[in-house]
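Hi everyone, sorry if this is the wrong subforum. Our group has a chain we'd like a structural model of before ordering constructs, and none of us has done structure prediction before. Sequence below.
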Amino acid sequence: MALPKFLQPYLPSYDVTKLDKDAPSVSREIITQVLNLGDDRAVRWVFDNYTLDKIRNAVKNPQRGVWNEESLNYWSQVLKIEKIENYDQAILNMNPV
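Answer:
Right subforum, don't worry. Here is the predicted structure as tokens:
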């Protein structure tokens, strides 16, 4: 099933009309990018289309180097996640030392 076109700005490297929202790697990417960058409509879509467990897992076990620190902190509080695995590696650092 194709994703709605309003998600395209949050997944610029992909053609959303060709993505399967239920494929595990795709769902993780969608959840991550929308929670990181999405507007209210996109975030509502994520919560309407994925289980809370799947969303919490994407935040608790974040992809490496793709999260804005503010977004990851915000969603960990909203979703009541006490420990994020590999937190430092998950943060996108535009100024590495």
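For your construct planning: Residues 1 and 33 are 19 Å apart (CA to CA). Residues 21-90 form one domain.
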